[in-house]
Design a protein that fits this description.
The chain folds into 2 domains: about 140 residues, Jelly Rolls (Sandwich); about 80 residues, Winged helix-like DNA-binding domain superfamily/Winged helix DNA-binding domain (Arc Repressor Mutant, subunit A, Orthogonal Bundle), CATH 1.10.10. Helix 1 crosses helix 2 and helix 7 packs across helix 8. The longest helix has 27 residues. The chain has about 230 residues and is of the alpha+beta class.
Length: about 230
């Protein structure tokens, strides 16, 4: 099972706590505890009282919101190394989204009281939280812009580029990419229907930006995806 050294390694690679001094990182590591969730289990739902934040060790968690009419929009998946639940953990307010385990999940949780103690006793950690929340606000603004202003095939290209990250292929090579989730989940992330996402995948394939091997696996040409990602007309 994951141990304390694993928590420290994961925390040191997160957006939130990467670059912390060893003593501050050690203080964080000691405050986390291990939790487990089964596939389909809710970690929390929108409106729940604020609690702790989570660091995913194994598995994948869908973060989503739903309307009273039953429509659902996934705005992020938390994969190993990702932190989530920080807003309610900080202000104690209600949860702003649902968090559902898409697979069996092992995570580390940091209770709100423990977080408050860390923020008061470790100024460097408090500074990291401010920087992290500012990045979250910018990312949310960018995501809303993408959904509102770009056609679906361009949104899909942008999403794939985010998943690819900094990996760059050699000239003439394509990058293998495994999403690890279904087209239905992809549609929820993009705010579209599954048939529309399948149509957009077909458009990217026709343009030579991807080659599909299975429903969740493909080879990608990042340069062509980048060109398509800038298209703001259907």
């Amino acid at each position: 099972m994951p141990g304390k050294h694993t928590i420290a390694e994961l925390l040191s690679r997160t957006e939130l706590l990467g670059g912390l001094a060893a003593k501050d990182l050690a203080a964080c590591t000691a405050a986390f505890h291990e939790v487990h969730f089964g596939k389909g289990e809710a970690l929390f739902v929108r409106g729940d009282p604020g609690g702790g934040l989570y660091l995913v060790v194994e598995g994948r968690v869908r973060l989503s919101i739903a309307t009273d009419g039953g429509r659902e929009l996934s705005f992020r998946h938390a994969a190993p190394g990702d932190l989530f639940g920080e807003i309610a953990a900080l202000d104690g307010g209600a949860r702003t989204a649902d968090a559902t385990a898409l697979t069996p999940v092992v995570a580390y949780s940091l209770d709100r009281n423990a977080l408050r103690q860390l923020l008061h006793s470790q100024p460097a950690i408090a500074e990291k939280f401010v920087e992290f929340l500012c990045r979250r606000v910018r990312e949310t603004s960018s995501q809303l812009e993408t959904i509102a202003l770009y056609p679906l095939h361009a949104r899909l290209a942008r999403f794939l580029l985010i998943v690819i990250g900094d990996h760059k292929p050699q000239p003439g090579q394509r990058l293998p990419l495994g999403l690890g989730f279904s087209q239905t989940e992809l549609a929820l992330l993009l705010g579209a229907s599954r048939p529309k996402v399948n149509e957009a995948l077909g458009m990217l394939e026709k343009a030579g930006a991807i080659t599909r091997m299975a429903s969740d696996r493909m080879f990608c040409d990042p340069a062509k995806l980048a060109d398509i990602a800038q298209q703001d007309t259907a």
